[in-house]
Amino acid sequence: MAKARELKRRIRSISSTRQITKTMEMVATSRLKKAQDRVVAARPYAAALAEVIGDLYAPELAERFPLLRRPAADAVGRRPTAVVLITSNRGLCGGFNANLIREARRRLQELEGQGGA
Questions:
Q1: Of 42, 49, 93, 101, which residue is the catalytic one?
Q2: What is the DSSP string of 43-54?
């Protein structure tokens, strides 16, 4: 009799584990789908960003805006580094912008320390 009870308990345990595993799989599938949707939604933004960055290299702009001209190399052969920072103006973006600017400043200091900015 004890063996039958042990088997029933074991079957319930396995069934419960199977149910938990199935639920976890469904949650993972849902998260993956959401991540894939975000990637697809970001593609137009990435394409527009690539176009903007490509436009920054346009010779016509360099003629009109001196800051976009490619500077000559120094005596060691290093060229100054440009950091283009694009912030947000949508929603509650103050914290995001502050973090972005703080990181850009940190990166500029790092580049200056290496002699590259």
A1: 93
A2: HHHHHHHHHHHH
